[in-house]
Amino acid sequence: MAVTPPEGFEPHFRRSPLTEPWEPIFSQRLPDRVVIGLYAREPHTNSRGMVHGGLIAALADNAMGLSCVAVLTGEGRKPEGGLITVSMATDFIGAAKLGQWVAFDTRYVKTGRTLCFAQAFVTADGEVVGRADARFKVW
């Protein structure tokens, strides 16, 4: 079944074994961030039919890390070794349900010499359902 994402999104450029069962995943590259999105399907849900918090945390982590790389690269400091998540907190303040467009948008990035800080909001059809913040080690 072909899935068409919203305008500006294309198949996610950073696939991994963890996210393979969740495909199709889409992303939008902007100068200061990467936004990740998907249409909620059954493989994304828990036993109550809501998008699982583990998926929300994993994709928020991915979006924030890629956004930190985008900002560092824009500053002329692309991390050769990438980034490693040092810590992350996730708040679940709503529920994403089957069929909804779930987006992971990084709204804040602050870079330092060895750490990068980011905050993301997770929305389902435009309504905020989660928030995450993380710190990444710059390698």
SSE diagram, text form:
Layout: E1 10-11, E2 26-30, E3 33-39, H1 53-74, E4 83-92, E5 101-111, E6 115-124, E7 127-138
Antiparallel strand pairs: 1-2, 2-3, 3-5, 4-7, 5-6, 6-7
Describe what this molecule looks like in 3D.
The chain has one helix at 53-74, and strands at residues 10-11, 26-30, 33-39, 83-92, 101-111, 115-124, 127-138. The model has no long low-confidence stretch (mean pLDDT 95). It has one domain: Hotdog Thioesterase (Thiol Ester Dehydrase, Chain A). 16% of the residues lie in helices and 41% in strands. It is an alpha+beta fold and 139 residues long. The longest helix is centred in the middle third of the chain and has 22 residues, at 53-74.
Strand content: 35-45%
Between the first and last Cα atoms, what is the distance in angstroms? 39 Å
- The CATH class turns out to be Alpha Beta
Order of helices and strands: EEEHEEEE
CATH architecture: Roll
Q: Could you please say which CATH topology applies here?
A: Thiol Ester Dehydrase, Chain A
Proportion of residues in helical segments: 10-25%
Quick one: biggest sheet? 7 strands, antiparallel
Count of discrete alpha- or pi-helical segments spanning 4 or more residues: 1
Dominant shape: globular
Number of strands: 7
Radius of gyration: 14 Å
* Class per helix and strand makeup: alpha+beta
Task: Give a short overview.
By secondary structure, this protein is of the alpha+beta class. The protein has one helix at residues 53-74; strands spanning 10-11, 26-30, 33-39, 83-92, 101-111, 115-124, 127-138.
